C-alpha cells in the first residue's frame, strides 16, 4: 500500500471513530439537554433587548456546571459546594426567588437586577463577576434564565423601591444606627460586632433548608448585593428573598435605615467616612456605650 | 528559537506533492464526513495551556474560560489578568481544601505524517561522496507530544505564581515558565508586576492556540528569521525579565511593558541551559530588550466583542563573543546590534461569538550585521562581499486565523499565514528568498466538557511553502538552491487531554 493511501485509510478510520464515539451514550455529554418550562423570553436592559435563544448557548457555556441543565442549581459542581463550610449552593432558577433585587420582597426582580447580579457576582461564593461578558450577552442570559420558571410568563417584575437621598453620615446618625442595630435585633444573627456570629447564626437555613451564614461585616469591602451605601439600604428594605434576612420596609423608616447603614459601615475594615468618625468618637466616648446584645432582664442573673 | 515539543520529523520515504494534495482533499472530505450529525449535537505545539486545576478549584467548566481550550475567551483573559483570581475573596489558597494541589498535566498521543519536498539527499545512501540530489521525504507513525506538568495558582490573595516544567517527547524537561506575580498592587488592576520567565503579552497567544501539528503548531511570524540571519529572537518564545501590566475591570483595555534580558530566555545569564534542551545555549547580549503591548476591546452587541491591539519589541543581539583559545565563551556576547518587531493584531467575533477571526501583522527588521551574520568588530566594507550591497533585512508578515464554534465542544479551525521579504540582507539574494506561505485547517472535538479534565479529538492538516530556508517546523533542511521551494506538510490526528 502506498503511503498516501495508508494515510487516507487511517484518517478515514479516525473519522469513523469520531462518528462512533459521537453516538456512544457513554460519551453523550455533547448532547446536553437543557430543560426549560416557558417559551422564548426577552429581557430589556436600557436599549438592549436580550433573547433567550442565544442566551441558551451562553448558559451552556458559562453557567450549566453549577446551575445545571434544568436551572435548579443541581449542576455537576453543586455537590461540592458545602453550605456548612460557608459555600452557598447555586441559585435555583426554577423557584424564581432572588436575593438581590431593587423590588419589594416577594416580587420578581427587574431584568437590570439580574444583569447586575451576573456582572457583580457574589463575593465569597463561586459565582464570579461576569463583567467580561458584553451587555448583550448578559441580556441574553437574563432572558434565558427566565425560561426556567413559569412565574416569568405570568407575573411582572416588582416596581423598584424608592431610595430617598442619603442624609449626612455624622456621629448622631451612626449612634442612632447603633441603637437600631440593637433594637431590631440584628445582632442576633450578625453578632454584636457584626462578625456573623450571633446566637441565632448556627440555626439559620435558606429556603431549601441549607445552612446559611449571616454576613460578616468584618470580612471585606463588598456585600452580596453590592458595595455602596445605596446597595446596603436596598438590602434592608427589600430583604434577601430565600434567606432569613427579611425586608424591614414595613418596620423602619427611611431615615432609620440610613442610620443603620452608617453604623454598619463602621463595622467594616474600610477607611470610610463613617469608620473615621467612629474611631475618633469611640476613643473618647467608648465607656459611655452599652454593649450590644441581650439586655439583662430585671432581676437578671437569677 | 522556538519550542517544538510536539513531533519529531525526519523524513524516510518519498512521496509527491500531489500525494499531499490528495491527503488535503481527504482531510477536507473527512472534515465534512466526520462532523457529528446535527441531531447528535447540542442545541444544537502543543504548547499549553488549559488549566483544569483552575476548573477544579472553582468548579467552572472549561468553556467558561476558553472559547475552546486552550484558547482563552475574554472571561478567561480577565481571570488570567487578575492573577488567576475570580476576585471573590476566596482566591487565596487558605480558602482551599488542604488536599487541593494546583497541578495540570497535558499530553497528546497522536499519529502524524510529515512530508517535505526538495530535500538534499545523497544519491547513494551512505556514500557522502555521491552526488546530492533533491528528493521528497516522508515519515509517518504513532507518536507522543511533549508533556506539560503545570503548577500554577495563587500563593496568597493578589500574589500568583506559575511553574511549568515541560518536556519533549523524550521526557527531557525544561522550565517553560516560572514566575511570581504581584497582582492589583495599591488596590488597582492597572498595576501588576511579574518577575521570572514568562510568555510575552501577545494578543494572539501561541501558547494557547488550537493547532498541534509540526507545521501548523507554530506561528511562522513568531519565530521567523531570514536565511543566514543570526538573530535567534522569536516573539513567541518565553523570555526572562520583569513585566508591568494593567487592565480594566473587564480587561477590555490592557497594556503591558516588559524589560527582558537579551538572551532569548536562557538561564544562567545565557551560559546555562537553553530553554529547549535540544537547542544549544545562545550568547547573552548582556543588555536588555523592551516589549510593549496595548489592546482595546469593544462590545459589538450580539456579535460579541472585538479587540484591536498593537505591540513592539525592541532589542539587541550580540554579533560575536569573547573567545578562549578561539572558542566562544558562552554568555559573553559582544557587539550587540539592534532589531525590532512591531505590528498589530485583532480578535474579532461575529454571529453571537460563534465565528472568530484573528488577524495579525508584523514588520520585522534586523541590523545588517545580524542579517549577514558578521561580527560587528569588522568594518561592514570588509564583512560585506565585494560588488554586493549589504543591508539590514526587513520583512512583512501576517496571518488570518479563523475559528467556527459549532458548540463549546466542536470547533473548526483554519489559518493562512505569509511572510514576504521587503529587503534582503545581500542585494544579490533572490527577492523572494525566505518568503513563507502556510495553510492549516482542522477541527477539535471535545467529547466531554466539564470542570475536572479535558479531552479533545484533534484532526489537522498543515502545509507550508518556504523559499530557500529550513522549514520552521524543522521538518527537513534548506533546499540546495537559494530560491528553492520547500513544501512541508503535516497531517496530525491525536487525542489531546489535560487533567
Structure in words:
The complex is a heterodimer of chains A (302) and B (499). Chain A is built from 10 helices and 2 strands. In chain A, helix 2 packs across helix 4, helix 6 (171-183) packs across helix 9 (254-267) and helix 9 crosses helix 10 (273-285). Chain A has 2 domains: 42-154, Cytochrome Bc1 Complex, Chain D, domain 2, CATH 1.10.760.10; 171-286, Cytochrome Bc1 Complex, Chain D, domain 2, CATH 1.10.760. In chain A, 38% of the residues lie in helices and 3% in strands. Chain A is an all-alpha fold and 302 residues long. The relative contact order of chain A is 0.12. Chain A starts with a helix and ends in a 17-residue tail after the last helix. The radius of gyration of chain A is 25 Å and the shape is elongated. Chain B is mostly beta strands. Chain B is built from 7 helices and 22 strands. In chain B, the strands form 3 sheets. A 16-stranded antiparallel β-barrel of chain B has the order 3-6-7-8-9-10-11-12-13-16-17-18-19-20-21-22. In chain B, strands 1-2 form a two-stranded antiparallel ribbon. Chain B has a two-stranded antiparallel sheet with strand order 14-15. Chain B starts with 16 loop residues before the first helix and ends with a strand. The interface between A and B is large, with 60 and 65 residues.
Attribute tags:
heterodimer; A: 302 residues; mainly alpha; Cytochrome Bc1 Complex, Chain D, domain 2; 2 domains; two-stranded antiparallel ribbon; 10 helices; 38% helix; 3% strand; B: 499 residues; mainly beta; Porin; 16-stranded antiparallel β-barrel; two-stranded antiparallel sheet; 7 helices; 45% strand; disordered N terminus
